[in-house]
Amino acid sequence: MADPHDLIDVDRLVARTVELVQIPSVNPFDEPMGEGEGEDAAAAWLQGHLERLGHDIATEEISDGRPNVIGVGPGGDGDVVCLAGHLDTVGVVGYDNPFSGEVRNGRVYGRGTCDMKGALAAFVEVADVLAASGTSLDGRLMIAGIADEEHGMVGSALAGATGPIADHLIVGEPTSLAVCPAHKGQYAFPIHTQGRAVHSSIKHEGVNAIEHMMEIMRMLGDYEAELRSNEPHDLLGLASVNLGVIRGGDMVSIVPDACELHVDRRLVPGETSAEVRAELERRIAAISDDRGGFGWGIGDPMVDARPLDTERDAPVVVAAQQAMRGRGLSDRLEACTGSTDAPNLGGPAIIWGPGSLSQAHTIDEWLDIGELEAAAHLYLDAVLALAGGVR
Fold this sequence. Notes:
CATH class of the largest domain: Alpha Beta
CATH architecture of the largest domain: 3-Layer(aba) Sandwich
CATH superfamily of the largest domain: Zn peptidases
Helix content: 25-40%
Mean pLDDT: 96
CATH topology of the largest domain: Aminopeptidase
Distance between the termini: 6 Å
Strand content: 15-25%
Oligomer: single chain
C-alpha cells in the first residue's frame, strides 16, 4: 500500500483552496443575509467531498442557509480525531476582487485564504489520501465545517451542546503552523448610562450621562491595574480591558441623557464571563449608589468566548509536537492570540494552522502555498498518531 504522504498533491490542494475562496461565505453579522453571505454554498462543497469519501454526514442549521457540516470517516472503535474549521469569513467592504482565488508568487489570494479555507482544503486532502492509500484507522477521522465563528460562535455552541464532539480536536485557525494549546477568552459587552437632558444653560437641572460614564471609565482603569498585578499565565500572560467604542450626546448645547461604552475584556483560564460581569456590576453599583440620577446597565454581550487551556501533555499536543519535530519544524508551544470556538466543541484541543493571523481580515488576504502543503502533511501525521493508522 502507498504511503499516504506520497499521495498529497499540492496542485490539488491549491485548486481546492481556490474553489473554496471563490465561494463567498461572508458572515451576515445578525443582518439579513444578502448575496454572497451565509455558509450554505461552502457547506455544500465540503459535504460533497465528505460524501464522496464515504463519511457519515450530519448537518444542522443555526438559521436558514447557515449549516454546520460534520463528517465522520470509516474506521474502528478507537479515538475520534476532529479536524475542525469554520466556513464563514468576515466582510469584504473595500476589498477589490475578494473572491478571486488568484495564485501568484507562491501564494493564494482572496478573502478566507488563511482564515481559514486553506486549512479546510488541507483537511479534505488528508481524508482523500487516507482513502486512496488504503489506510485503516483504529479510530475515525472527523471533519467539521462550522458556521458563525466570526461573530457569535453559534455554530460551535450548537455542535458541542451535548458534550465533546471528539476525543482530540485540531482547529485549523492561522497560527503560522505554531502549536497553540491556549488562548484567551473574549467577553465584549456594552455599558449604558442614562441621565436627564436639558439645555446646557441650565445644566444643574439635568443629569449628564457622559460624566457618569467617565466615572465608570476611571473605575475600569483601576480594575485593569489590579488585573496587571496578578500572576501571569505561562503562555497567555495577563487578562486585559479595552475600551473600544464610546457614543454619547446629540449636540454641544444639550446635557446628554445617554452614553454607551463598548468594553472588550480578555479572559485568562480560570476566569468566566459570568464572574466578570458580576464583579463589574458590583463596582458600578458602588459608584452610582451615592450619586443621584445615575442610571446604568450592562447589556447583552456581543462576544462571549471562553478561554482555552489544554494540558501540555494531552495526546493531541504531544502528537502535534512530534509531527513538527519530524518535519524539522519548531515544536515550541505558543499562545493563539485570537479567541476561537474550540472551547465550545469540547475535548482537548489545539489551534494549529497555516497562514498568519496578521493576514486574516485584511483587504489583501493571502496564504503561502508552502505552509498549506506543510499543514496537510502535519495534519496527516497527527491523525495517524492519534487514530492509529495501519497500512
